[in-house]
Predict the 3D structure of the following.
Amino acid sequence: MAEVKNVTITVDGKQVTAPAGTLLIEACKAVGIEVPSFCYYPGLSLQAACRMCLVRIEKMPKLQTACTVPITDGMVVATDTDEVRQARKSMIELLLGNHPLDCPVCDAGGECELQDMTFKYGAAESRYMEGKLHKEEQQWSPVVFFDRPRCILCYRCVRVCGEGMDVSALGVQLRGSSSVIAPNEGDHLDCEECGMCIDICPVGALTSGAYRYKTRPWEMKHVGTICTHCGDGCKTTLGVRRSDTGMDIVRGDNRDKSGINGDFLCIKGRYAFDYFDHKDRLRQPLVRKDGKLTPTTWEEAIEHVGKRLREIRDSKGGQSIGVIGSNRTTNEENYLLQKFARTVLGTNNIDHHRTTDFAGFARAIAGKQNATATMRDVASAPAILLIGNDPTERHPLLAWNIRTNVRLHQAKLFVVNSQPIKLRRQATRFVQVPAGREGKLVAFLNGDDAAAGALTGASGSNDALKQLRDELKAQKDLVIIFGSELQGADIAALVKFGSAANAKFICLGDYANSRGAADMGLYPDLLPGYVALDGPHKYNEEWGSLSKTKGMGLQEMMQAAKGGKLAALYVVGSNPVVDYNFDPAALQNTFVVVQELFLTETAMLAEVVLPAASAYEKGGTFTNTCGDLQLLKKAGDITGIKSDFEIIVRVAERIGTEVRKLVPFGSGVRADMGQTRGAQSGEADRHSVWLTANNLEPRLSPFDPYAMLDEIQRLVPGYEFSRLSLLAGNDQHMLAAELSAAGAGDALVQIVPANDTLFTSGTLGRYSKTLNSVIENKRAPADKEVMAD
Amino acid sequence: MVISDKLDKFFDEKMKEYPTRRSFLVPMLLYSQDEVGYLSDEVIAYLAKKTELTELEVRNVISYYSLLHTKPMGKYHVQVCTNISCMLRGGEEILDHCKSKLGIGHKQTTADGTFSLEEVECIGACSWAPAVQINYDFHENLTNEKMDKVLDQYRSKAK
Ligand code: SF4
Ligand code: SF4
Ligand code: SF4
Ligand code: FES
Ligand code: FES
């Protein structure tokens, strides 16, 4: 691309230098001059509908819209003259012409752009005598409501739905002052229900089913944390209030555009936090008595678990115990769980629901440098190859970043899939291959022309394939993204192809922390950081020497259970009975303990069920599917539950472990609780409040996950990051895959992708009122694609 | 097919002259309306497909133009201008007169389907205001009496 030259303009007497072509409104922003705007929205097409951004440009006959004028050399602009001020005032007067001014009851009150502008530039009185047009409020879907009179016709909603979401469910009907925003089905919406239109609305015209008329912005606590659903790791700001059960989450959004997702959230991030207070949520430990799960106290439950596990370990040995970890618990919890299994229970029988072959990926990429891409890379890479998966349904943020990249930077997108997935519409080239043959395609890319025979069934001639191969080879800085269609040797082959062109990779796994589960070593043969049990590693030094014998994976545990050789099964946040077809009958004589939010099919078989915190009720870190590490912040407490972290520590303690060996709390940390500044009463207290507020609790508690994070940072290869940056809410890319030492690997393991849609989320989705209320959820996936077209 | 094969072919032919498919939408809407009488749901679906737009987008465009209709109009569609020039020269009186004479209001159709009435903005005949457009024909310098004659002509034509 040709170098863009800089030009210099004068705004209100200040010199501004920016690349030619920069929009005037952005150039002004760069020197701190705010030009008010409604319809202008960075990243969306220009509309020039609201005329709020009028400024005076010398030598131009009329006031100009700063949102559409590209700067040119020598331009002289005035943004703060009487004339401009008067123009702004008039524009607001016009906008308020039909506006109901119902701020006291409007959801947007307190964070409304129209309200702010009216205060700042405003027209407190109006010269219009005409009656206001009125229309009743409409409900377009369980999540989207529309209040016509409040709408200022900025068309942001229409553009974000069309350009951003590629759904185009919103349009404008009629014209002039009777223009009205309309949904695609006449009186309701048939769309992806993302709620983007609601959040982008500068006023309270589009409102959210979850939030409307519930509270006011200043009555909430705002907690920036991570979405708990898919593996993309969107940042979300939760609006939290107190309630009789401890807390009430009333909304989720990312209006501050922080994090890897900018302002994007899909329906799950924006609404599906609502499972947290579902009436079926477990609030009390259950212990089986006379064959029935009976509510009991934490004391009794933990005592029971600790005692039985110790008996089993001491009489039958650790190898008779199996542990299944979770794709939804934090890195600290996953790390703790496998350490607990290996050092307390004395077993390497630990596994998790594998939704993709992260271990195979780590093996393939080991030793390469900077070979994994971040979620941010997806939004800026010049070229992307996507093999398998359907990101629109299963990785909504990834799909959004791809679309945004294609739209704003003309990135080239190459899609290989067995289905005509929706992203083909952004693709430079779309190649359909028969399901299950994605590996053949990789072989073909590597030069195996014979493989084409297995592929051409669906997409016709060889030529398209050859063209794809040639085009891909010509790409610089390619990002290669693949789903669980590729595993083991196929991934290795793909890495071979990509590495020749210095490509970066993303392996797609399901659920909020499936990557974290893999990185933290929930494997029978791999320690955290994909380190082979039988290879050299540092864990022995800190944990005492570990068994080098590979443990049982999920399938083997089931076989062992069938053969009566699995005396105990410890399950954390997983539902193997459904996800892995774990035969319930096999568990008849096994002592099963389950830590869960709900009474899942697996929990129903347990002897003890321990009610666990959801990811909204605890802190820690998550690693998204790309390997980006982010901070999970606790939104609040609800009664009756404990975090998985605390539960595991308590059980370990009851088994008779020295807790300090498991969690390095207090060791080597000398907390300043205010001592340095004298001993006035209250000082220590205030100081610790400050520390807590800044996420800097000294590790004085064995339940503090950040103590575990200290150890992770110290021992797990690739988990090097800045603590401060993490605490500041930034994402940092982990290199666990590149730095792995996984050894030769294993016979084929069973990968079971979650196959969630936009409207499901494993076991949690069942308990989300919102996900179950939208009509699109009731449709078969095949029709959904048609709908999206 | 919702429109004649001839028109469909004509669309395909003409489409080639436009930079993008959607650019041809408004002419296609007009042609289709002339042939079918109004823009039915089927016509909208057909044109959405043809232009590769959503039906919603086609409806957005239709709703923008008062000359496009989604309900059947009368055989003769009487469009009375009440914009400035016509208003100054009695356009509003002509409209009132038509209303009482035909017994229908703005955007309504007579029971026998002969006439429909619509108040419209400037139709570009200001020099001969007040003006009325009936289907594609203009009637100018109107008075109530002249208007009666015009309507009578059409009524006899309809028989
Ligand atoms: S919820 Fe999302 S998909 Fe539906 S109309 Fe709004 S922006 Fe479009
Ligand atoms: S509904 Fe909101 S976003 Fe959409 S046009 Fe109206 S004011 Fe703008
Ligand atoms: S894309 Fe994934 S992480 Fe982002 S809001 Fe949706 S479910 Fe949550
Ligand atoms: S912001 Fe420039 S016209 Fe709306
Ligand atoms: S004002 Fe009636 S034709 Fe122009």
User: Anything to note?
Assistant: The pocket of iron/sulfur cluster (ligand 2) is lined by residues A 151-157, 181, 200-203, 205-206 (CB under 6 Å). Chain A touches chain B through eleven residues (CB under 8 Å). Residues 560 and 566 of chain A are 5 Å apart (CA to CA). Confidence is low (pLDDT under 50) at residues 674-681, 782-789 of chain A.
